[in-house]
Specification:
This protein has seven helices and two strands, in the order H-H-H-H-H-E-E-H-H. The chain has 158 residues and is mostly helical. It has a two-stranded antiparallel ribbon with strand order 1-2.
């Protein structure tokens, strides 16, 4: 059953959401929020490790009363692609990279390329990726649903 949209989520402007996401990430990673921008790369700039992504997602879920299931972005990106069109031996293929660019246009398109090992995908994530995930969920009115960009059909995945 979808979460009810909270009054604070309805009133939150995109700037408010960005500010709260930055604060959540700062708290999770024990860094000063003034050193974080939307373009900050979580791993390279802020020193996040893969385990930190779970904590960040948990904190965002709690802060915004939303759900961000693990591996949801990858499942959405796979969409209607045949498995071998998305990845082969955990290596992103051209069609998979193209889909990922549509789902997450915030990612650096030059780094999000065919040949990228899927285990390295989190190394591309910026604060903006998480801010936009939250904004999409809040904008959808159904806080369990991902509202993609560029006209993709809504999904229950992020």
């Amino acid at each position: 059953m979808p979460n009810a949209v909270t009054a604070s989520a309805i009133k939150a402007s995109p700037a408010d959401i960005e500010e709260k996401v930055i604060q959540v990430i700062a708290d999770s990673l024990c860094v000063d929020s003034s050193s974080i921008s939307l373009k900050s790369n979580l791993m390279r700039d802020l020193g996040a490790e893969s385990i930190d992504f779970l904590d960040i997602m948990f904190r965002l879920e709690r802060e915004f009363n939303i759900k961000i299931p693990q591996r949801e972005i990858e499942r959405l990106a796979r969409g209607g692609l045949a498995p071998e069109e998305f990845e082969v031996n955990s290596i992103l293929q051209a069609k998979g990279a193209e889909r990922m660019r549509i789902i997450l246009p915030e990612l650096n398109a030059e780094e999000l390329r065919a040949g990228l090992p899927l285990r390295e995908l989190p190394s591309l994530f910026t604060v903006e990726v998480f801010a936009n995930i939250v904004k999409r969920k809040v904008a959808s009115g159904d806080l369990d649903t991902f509202v993609p960009i560029h006209g993709d059909a809504p999904s229950t995945m992020v």
